[in-house]
Structures are given as C-alpha cells and as structure tokens.
Specification:
The complex is a heterodimer of chains A (441) and B (479). Helix content of chain A is 36%, strand content 14%. Chain A is α/β, with parallel strands linked by helices and 441 residues long. The longest helix of chain B is centred in the C-terminal third of the chain and has 37 residues. The chains are: A alpha/beta (441), B alpha/beta (479).
Chain lengths: 441, 479
C-alpha cells in the first residue's frame, strides 16, 4: 500500500502533459552510475492487516510493567480521557507549523494559552511554544546565557539530572564553553559554599534543578542571589512538572530562566519521547530566547487573533545570526499539556498533594525495613533517595514480579553505593505500595 | 474566540481525581513554607466547556485531512491512520525509558531494525535516532563533523552553505562554533563549481548540501562536488529534508555524502502535529560511526541493549533515546510500503511536481525551467511588476479556494518565490483543481488586484497585524 491514488490512465495523461514517455525520464538528472532499480535489503510491503500483526507482535515482545517505581526525569501519571480525544483532532495533528495565521488560529491560540499557563506555573513572565525536551531546553538556556554575556563558563549543580548534564556538556563543547560542577551538601541540596568558590566573573550561568535529581527541593533564592552577585544568570530546572502545582516556582525566587520537562502534563511515558521542553524566562529576554512564540494581535477589523511573532530571532530569517537553530518543536505535546492543565485547573495542587501523600507512605514503609536509611535531609516532592543493603537484589526481586524498580544511583554517582531513587505518583495505590514492601522485605 | 481563561468560572473543574487511599499528610508540616507556592491561577472549566473550547479551536485550524497542503520543503503527504493506531498500542506508549532492557525487547528491536532499514534506504553505515527534529539532527550532524576534525587534530573553522539552503543550515553551523560561508548557485540552479573550487580550502570542514536543492533540482554535478570536497579533506553533509525525491532511485551514501539528517515527519509520513513532534535521525558514513551520540543499541548473543561505551562519541543531544513514538509510526510506514512502495512514492511525488510545473508555467514565471524533482519553484515577479500583487497576496487568496498556501519567499534566491510540493498522495483531480485556482488567481490579479490583496475573505480572522504583534509583544494573557 503506497497511498498513491493515480490510475494507469492518470499517469499516462500526466506524462503526456509533461512531455515524457516514462517516469524514468524524470530522473535523468541523477547520474546513471548512481541509480538503481531495486532498493537493496528492504523487505517487501505488507497489507494493513499484516502490518498490524507485525507491530502487535513487536509490542508484545515488550513486557508491560505492573508498576513503575522510577521517575528520574520521566513520570507515569494518569491522563484524563479528554486529552487524547482533543489532541487526536486531525485538524490539529495533521497540520504543519502555523505559518499561515488565518487558517491556524486553533493551534496559535492554544499555544498562546499554553505559554500563559507555563509562565504562571514557573513564576516567570514569558514562555515559548516549546523545545524538544527538558534537557535540550536547559542546554539552550545555557548557550544563550553565554552568548548574551560573552562569558564562557557554566556552573551546574551535580544534583541536576545526569543526562541533562551530559546534553549540557555536548552543547557547551560545540560552542567552546566549559561546564563546572558543584557538589551536594549532606542535605541533598546544592552546597552553597561550593557554589561561591566556583563563581567568578567568567561564569555566564548557574544551573540547578528543584526538585533535583535526588528528589530534594532546592532553596533557590540564595542561589539566585549568589549567581547575580557575580553577574551570572540563574537557570533553574525541575523534575516532575506536577510539582509546580504546590511548590513555589523558581521564577518567583529570582531565576532568570525556568526550563524543564513537561511530559508529566498529559503526555504518555512513550519510552522517552516525544516529550515537551518547557522554556520560560524573564520578560527582558523576550527578544533573545530560542524557539517559536505565539503572540496576540488584531486583524484589520480590530478583531483579536494570533500569529507567530518575533520571528526575527529565528533561523529562517536570521540564518547564522539566529538565537538558535530550532525549527520544529513539540507543538502537539504542548497542546496536550495545555488541555491537561485546563482540565485539572487548580486541582493540580490536589494532584500534587496526592503525589506527596503516596510518596510519604512509600518512604515510611521502606524505612521500616531493617537496614534501609534515608540519605538526604532536605524536603522532597514525589521522589526520594534511600540507601539499602543491596540495591541490585531489590530491583531483581521487583523485576521478577513485573515491576520496574527504583533508579540505581550508583551508575551516575559512584559514591552512592546501594542507593536507590524511588518515585511514587498517584498511579500507585496503597495496595500496590504494600505489595512492593512485601516483595522487598 | 474567547480564551480558556475567559470562560473560566471559580469552582468549576474537569478534574476527577481519586481520593487518597494512604494517610494524608499535612504538607505545611513536612515542607517549609518557603518552598510552597501562594497562588495557582489555572482555568476552571467543566469538562464539556473544555471539550467544546478545543474542538472549536480545532475547527479554526487547517490540517492535511481537510485539504491539499502543498507547503514546499515540508512534504505534507497523507498521514496513514494505521500508523496512529499502532503507535497508540499500550506496548509502545506505556514503558518508562529507564525500564531494564529485558522489559523493552520489542522497542529495542524496533529501533535497531529502523536504523538498519534507514541505513539500507540511504546507503549509510549507521544511524542515530536520538535527534528530536530535522534541525536537531543537523546540529547533531555538524557536532559529529566538529568531533571528526578535533580527533584528526585539524582546525577547520568554516562551513560552506549554498545560497539556496534552509535557514537551519547556517544556524546549525553557528551553534557549533563554525563560521559559515555562502556558496553561489549557477545559472541552472546547481552548485557553482568554480566558486566551490575557490572556497574549498583546508579551513573548510564541510559543505552542507541539500540534494535535490530547495529549487527542487537535482545536483547534476554531485560527483564532482563530492570529489572537490573530499580531495581537500572536507566532509559532505546532506540535508535530507528533500529525501522524498529519491527513495529507491539513488542513495546519498553512494553519492558521496558523509552525514545526512532525515525528517521522519516529512519523508516517512508521521504527522507534524502543528509544529512537532518531529524526528530527525542522522546517518553517517563508516568514518564517522564512532562519533554518533550515545546511548547506542548494541546487539549481542543475549539480545539488544543500550550502551554508552563509545569513547569518541559527541555525547548526548537530548535525554533518553529520541522521539520513540514518532519512530514507531515511521517504522510501520516503511514496513507497510516496502521497497516497491517507497520507490513508487518518489516516482509519483516527482510526477506530480512536474505536472504542476507544466500546467502553471504559462501563468507564472519559472526561473529554472528544467525537469524538477519533488517540488517546483515559481516566482511571483510578473504579478508584482504588472499588477502590484505580491506572492503573499496570492498565497492568502488560495486560502479562500480551500487550499493551504505553498511555501513563499523561500528559497531566498528566487524573487517572490512560490514553492509548491504536492507530494505523492494527491490525485490528478486535486492537482488539476489546485492549478485552476492558481490560474484564476493570476487572472484575478490582472482584473481585480484589490480583491487578491484583501484576501483571505473566508477565514475567522482577516489578515493579522504582524507588525503590531512584534512591536508590542503580547505572548501571555494578563487578567
């Protein structure tokens, strides 16, 4: 099945209109020596029924977990039924980027609504239409900070998601910037003394995450003050977006950029993607930030409408002088987030509190197991770091019961032996948690 | 239409949350007040309000399912429904990316097989599926080029980019610390070989070439271009945005390309979602495999698994593994079409573009009159000169005829450019009707130019004030 509607007759008529005798003549510009008639090593096509059978068989080779106890940058949350139904409107999902505003008011208005919700949630004044994911959003904020300040050093807390720091290093290497890491204090939060000694006038930005990778909340205000005192900007991330329903956002504590992963807002876990890069900032950076922006304006009759605006920042206008090379973003994931947030409304706080309840219950039960100890003292949201007697055995036991266990921190932090990062969202019932405890102990 | 905030009423909600079945903790007691937020100002709407609001917004959006969408360089082909269904299978949507490999056997196999299929279709040694979109793939590709020369101990700080190139190319080069140098096109729309000879020095890391280029023309001298670049130690980068033009006909790897990025949301039919998610796999020749991003899938006797053990890698370009769910759709598409289907895609796409080119040639200026590939580029020069009607006016007028306008004012080397990419999934009747609309707009430009300038006349809003939007930016609603 190739979805091409032409009949033989159509093709003959079209060839005649063009003035060629065969389709092959249309490919005459490709040098003969590089042309081939049959694509090598590619299987033959399948019927619709066969394709579904093939894909079902592949999907069935995955094992669907009974429970997932890992967060670590991707979160299993309940998604209200309305989200997929509305995102599944083909007027939305089969459209391209809204270059023609008059026939794209739907997605443009939805993006404007999304930007408004994100700016509010992050405690900033502005947000863009989305980036690829939380990690790339963070890296782009760092590159932008360095470019704006003509400084070449980025200071990142070691408690920032390890993969985010890897992406940050890749982007910084490509631009000739360096990344210095600041260790954690015993609380699990950024070591402020360490930050002070890492800061000097060559630092473009300081990067933290709250909740951080260990689940601990950071005290953003003194970190922002320390960064600003040296003329550096503060980029603050977060782990699970639902935390913003109850926690004070970094934008309200002095952060210049708030970046993070928006997958939690109505997007399936999807084995890592597509996700949603949230990028929010202080208003003064409006003309410098990467990515698309939907803006309100009026038509010639004075009626409100929406357009892609401030496009002179972007690559298709500014080319090598653009603030970023980003073009396609994650618009449909942003639409899902917008609908999800509108569905929950202020009940996002109720949901966040529910996550806290589940997490506190899981944590208290785990701490009853002999030999299990809490590692850090800082307050947490829905993830926490815990030390046990044998992390590998714990996860093997859980896996044997069809459960994706906790994140083993030793692979990223060699000093944290037998240390697990647990996550509990609203998806875990009390029975689930009690069952987990039975398996482990 | 009202904003979701404007229909909000305190006390309403579309949320239906479970009650806590575990002990309820006093949040204030376990989290210091300084960490907690004071306000949460999100819309308060009932579920029916929510559904009607976004359904009505969708009715103000033009998608491919509503009509012809000949947006040049974007390959807006039909998005088969089966691919949406298979990608929504819980087996593909429900797995956490940190799941042990034993849980993800199907996903790993699919991604590994996808890399092999793409390597075969494009003649490359290997692929990464990590980049989230075409421009992200470009960035990844240029990073690998940077790493290649770093490992060789060569300092090459320039990248050559043709004047016809997509804006992402120079922006990607700049984001990797390269300076970009513009390479001229010749009179037939190809690379000016003399200019290339002149520019190609030992300071040049790569040429970023789109082939067929943004004029829809295949680079006839591709062998010579590759030879000039390679003989001076440079690399040839291919922007695969136009890959719909050569599936089953030729392969970039055979043509001498060292790196190529794809756009699964163009060539392989995954829906573009109103601006994303896309997916931008990058293929490399054998000499660049070591620099691919990590993690990579490795196949061993015990099955497939993720590995980061590649010391020369550029690192990661995003968290996790890529836009996996988009990759599932593209994989299903490739498997359902197969080798013959993909070749026919290209044949019909090229047939359709040439058909439109021939039908519209008498009515619009055609700056490069030769056989085109998957798209054709006209100029609105005649209409501007004779009637004062611009390409943007004609594009807006097309909306009134029920079409999404073509890409306009790109490529930059064509005055008042109109770039039409019909794709293979459109019928002769659709193409004929579109051409009739274009021809009647050209006539209207002569007899009633004001009507064209007033377009669109049929949309919920008329032409929007973009200058105001940029001068007084309003990107977030305020109470």
């Amino acid at each position: 099945m190739d979805y091409c509607p032409h009949t033989k007759d159509d093709i003959a008529q079209m060839q005649a209109a063009i003035g060629v005798k065969s389709i092959e003549e249309l490919f005459a510009d490709i040098p003969q020596k590089f042309r081939f008639r049959k694509m090598p090593d590619i299987p033959s096509g399948l019927s619709e029924q066969e394709t579904i059978a093939l894909m079902s068989a592949i999907a069935a080779r995955n094992q669907m977990p009974r429970l997932t106890l890992t967060g670590a940058g991707a979160y299993v949350h309940f998604i209200p039924s309305v989200v997929s139904h509305l995102v599944g409107r083909s007027e939305f999902y089969t459209a391209y980027t809204p270059y023609q505003a008059e026939i794209s008011q739907g997605i443009l208005q939805a993006i404007y609504e999304y930007q408004t919700m994100i700016a509010h949630l992050t405690g900033t004044e502005i947000a863009n239409a989305s980036m690829y994911d939380g990690a790339s959003a963070m890296a782009e904020a760092a590159v932008l900070s360095a470019k704006m300040s003509n400084r070449s050093k980025i200071v990142a807390a070691r408690s920032v998601h390890p993969q985010y720091r890897q992406v940050l290093k890749t982007y910084c290497w490509a631009n000739g910037y360096t990344v210095t890491e600041v260790p954690c204090a015993t609380s699990g939060q950024l070591d402020l003394a360490g930050l002070h000694s890492a800061l000097d006038e060559s630092v473009a930005a300081v990067i933290v995450q709250s909740p951080n990778f260990f689940g601990c909340l950071e005290d953003i205000t003194p970190i922002a003050d320390a960064a600003h005192a040296k003329g550096a900007l503060l980029i603050s991330g977060f782990t699970d977006g639902t935390s913003l329903g109850i926690l004070k956002p970094a934008g309200a504590c002095g952060a210049d950029f708030v970046v993070g992963e928006g997958q939690s807002f109505g997007n399936p876990i999807n084995y890592g993607g597509p996700y949603l890069g949230i990028f929010a900032a202080r208003e003064k950076f409006l003309r410098r930030i990467p990515g698309r922006l939907a803006g309100a304006t009026v038509d010639k009759n004075g009626k409100r409408g929406f357009v892609l605006t401030l496009q002179t920042r972007e690559q298709h206008i500014r080319r090598e002088k653009a603030t970023s090379n980003i073009c396609s973003n994650e618009a449909l994931c942003a639409l899902a987030a917008c609908i999800y947030l509108a569905a929950l409304g202020p009940n996002l706080k109720t949901l966040a509190a529910l996550n806290i309840n589940k997490t506190q219950y899981l944590k208290s039960r785990l701490l009853q197991i002999p030999g299990w100890e809490e590692v850090f003292s800082a307050p947490i949201y829905n993830e926490f770091t815990i030390c046990c007697t044998d992390a590998r055995v714990v996860n093997e036991k859980l896996q044997a019961e069809g459960i994706i266990g906790a994140y083993d921190l030793q692979k990223d932090y060699p000093e944290l032996k037998n240390t697990l990062l647990f996550c509990a969202t609203e998806m875990l019932s009390k029975n689930d948690i009690d069952h987990v405890i039975e398996i482990i102990k | 239409m009202e904003l979701i905030f404007e229909i909000s009423k305190p006390g309403r909600s579309a949320a239906n949350l479970s009650a806590s079945d575990v002990p309820v903790v006093d949040v204030d007691h376990i989290i210091d007040r300084k960490y907690l937020r004071d306000d949460l100002d999100l819309p308060e709407v009932a579920e029916i309000d929510l559904v009607r609001h976004y359904t009505n917004l969708s009715r103000r959006n033009f998608g491919l399912d509503l009509g012809f969408y000949p947006l040049g360089s974007c390959t807006m082909k039909y998005n088969p429904k089966i691919n949406e269904n298979v990608a929504a299978m819980p087996g593909f949507t429900g797995l956490h990316p940190d799941a042990p490999d034993a849980f993800a056997k199907g996903n790993l196999e699919l991604m590994y097989d996808m890399q092999k299929l793409l390597s075969g279709i494009f003649g490359m040694a290997d692929f990464t599926l990590q980049p989230a979109a075409g421009a992200h793939g470009e960035l990844t590709g240029v990073m690998m080029i940077k790493k290649y020369f770093e490992k060789k101990g060569q300092k090459r700080h320039l990248i050559l980019i043709p004047d016809a190139a997509h804006g992402t190319n120079p922006a990607s080069g700049a984001l990797c610390g390269f300076e970009t140098v513009t390479l001229r096109s010749n009179t037939e729309g190809g690379v000016d070989l003399g200019h290339l000879e002149l520019l190609m020095t030992e300071d040049v890391a790569a040429l970023m070439l789109t082939n067929p280029n943004t004029l829809g023309l295949f680079e006839r001298n591709i062998e010579k271009v590759a030879q000039i670049i390679h003989s001076r130690g440079g690399l040839l980068y291919g922007d695969g945005a136009n890959a719909n033009a050569f599936l089953g006909k030729t392969r970039p790897g055979d043509l001498g390309f060292d790196v190529i990025q794809l756009n699964l949301h163009k060539t392989f039919s995954t829906p573009h979602g109103g601006g994303g998610p896309g997916s931008g796999p990058v293929g490399v020749s054998a000499g660049l495999v070591d620099y691919l991003p990590v993690p990579r899938i490795v196949k061993s006797d015990s099955g497939y698994g993720w590995s980061e053990q590649f010391p020369d890698t550029i690192g990661r370009v995003r968290a996790f593994y890529g836009n996996f769910n988009v990759i599932v759709k593209a994989y299903a598409y490739i498997r359902s079409l197969g080798a013959e289907g993909l070749a026919r895609v290209t044949e019909m796409a090229v047939l359709n573009a040439n058909y439109i080119k021939e039908k519209l040639k008498p009515y619009f200026d055609l700056p490069y009159d030769r056989i085109c590939m998957h798209e054709c580029v006209f100029s609105g020069h005649r209409q501007v000169e004779q009637n004062g009607v611009h390409t943007s006016d004609m594009a807006k007028r097309l909306i009134d005829f029920g079409y999404h306008p073509p890409t306009i004012y790109f490529p930059l080397i064509v005055h008042e450019a109109i770039m039409i990419e019909p794709t293979e999934t459109e019928s002769k009747e659709t193409l004929d009707a579109f051409c009739e609309a274009m021809i009647s707009i050209a006539r209207e430009a002569e007899v009633n130019p004001q009507r064209v300038k007033d377009a669109p006349l049929s949309t919920p809003v008329s032409r929007l004030d973009e200058v105001l939007a940029a001068r007084k930016p309003d990107v977030c609603w305020k109470r």
